[in-house]
Amino acid sequence: MIYTKGLDVLLLERADRPGFWQSVTGSQHEGESLEATAIREVGEETGLDAREHEFQAWNLQNVYEIYPIWRHRYAPGVTHNTEHVFGLCVAAPVTVRLAPREHLQAAWLPWREAADKVFSWSNREAIEMLPERLKR
Length: 136
Fold this sequence. Notes:
The chain is α+β, with helices and mostly antiparallel strands and 136 residues long.
């Protein structure tokens, strides 16, 4: 999740499902660490270099059922996914460079509005954790 200390959250609208908003997501390549995966996906989907900002593993995992519309991306019989949550705090909302095959548009929204807009329960929960996480 990419956010500011002012609690604005970057959301991306999926190209393959207009109206579905989410944080940066992606899949781990074989042999790649989870941290390297997160840094790579941020770069691919936004053009940002996570290493230039406050980047941290949240040590939070969510297991969820993969929506049937996206199961074709996985090996036959795979129905669940484990998501590892990372946070990237930037000083202020920045312009991002979208991967046009993946996302239609980006929006910086106040955290409550962002939590209401995302389609994923796990995204919503992570966004709702932001105020408490920033107090640490």
